[in-house]
Amino acid sequence: MSVDPVIAGLQVFVVGGAVRDALLGQPHGDRDWVVVGSTPQEMVARGFVPVGADFPVFLHPRTKEEYALARTERKSGRGYKGFTFYTGPDVTLEDDLQRRDLTVNAIAQNASGTLIDPEGGVRDIDARVLRHVGPAFEEDPVRILRLARFSARFTDFRIAPETLLLCQRMVSQGEADALVAERVWQELSRGLMCAKPSRMLAVLADTGALTRVMPELVDTARVRAAVDVAASCGLALASRYALLCVDSVNVAVQAKRLRVSTECADMARLLPNILAAVPRTRDAEHIMHTIESCDGIRKPDRFVALLQAAQVLEDVNVAVWRGLLDAVLAVDGGAVAKQATSAAEIKSAVRAARLQALVAGL
Description:
The chain is α+β, with helices and mostly antiparallel strands. The protein is built from 18 helices and 11 strands. It has helices at residues 17-23, 40-45, 93-98, 121-127, 142-153, 161-172, 181-192, 197-207, 210-213, 221-233, 237-244, 251-258, 262-277, 284-293, 300-313, 318-329, 333-339, 343-361; strands spanning 11-15, 32-36, 49-50, 57-59, 66-69, 72-75, 83-86, 108-109, 115-116, 129-130, 158-159. β3 and β4 (57-59) form a beta hairpin. α5 (142-153) runs parallel beside α7 (181-192). The model has no long low-confidence stretch (mean pLDDT 92).
């Protein structure tokens, strides 16, 4: 087997999620690498492309995988940005692993396949435990969010009691208040796409972080059940977010706070319209109003997605609603407009034709 000349002679190790997922027998995405004993100058000389703003991270010139110099970090301020990093060639692999969040993410593997596990990550994988590596965990509040997300992904894992207590202390000391919207949404959105998002909500609630990062959210049993059903049905992120917000009243405020995508914000805003219409599926005028209020004529795919989200909570016959929407969309607005006697009549004439088509479909 040929040796990659770019890394020949370097001490490189695969770390983190790729090692963890391989041990769990799960597929993994990109591999992350740690380089021990090197310098930024040597990495650049070998052809690596520097990309790290806060600490030296490099892209392999061919594979584009990330290679980070082994580093230590020291708390220097509030929140997740309050750190200074040291990446000298004297930093060991064990030093680097020690500053990671969870033991299951602090396992490395060398080129020959040998595992380096100074923090007992393999043991915790076997025991299905999510446990913090050490006291440094509490220096980064993002780790609370990551812990919650991992709980949603690895549904057969439990959180070590001491780790939960540590998170609760972090929240009580105000560390969670330093989290910025982008990081909250990044972790929340990824957690919503996991197998059991309710476990993420439970962890955030148990630690006290939920009311700090999403004060507008009304966390109910219905919401938790809904996001899990949405996950089992494979619904898109926007639909899952809409169901997360279904019992909340200040959805616009929350969307602004978290800086969610327009698609997610709109789905959360419009889902109540669909839910209100469900009991009146024989009322043509109300159905027409619902389609219009949800902009279903311009955005039929989103309207169907709203129906599918509503189906998680109510007995919605999506096929029937879709047939009615198709009947409305089939109306040739241009042809109707040509028959109108004045420009002022066009809008009402087109709507009347669409309503007639809808009635015929009932």
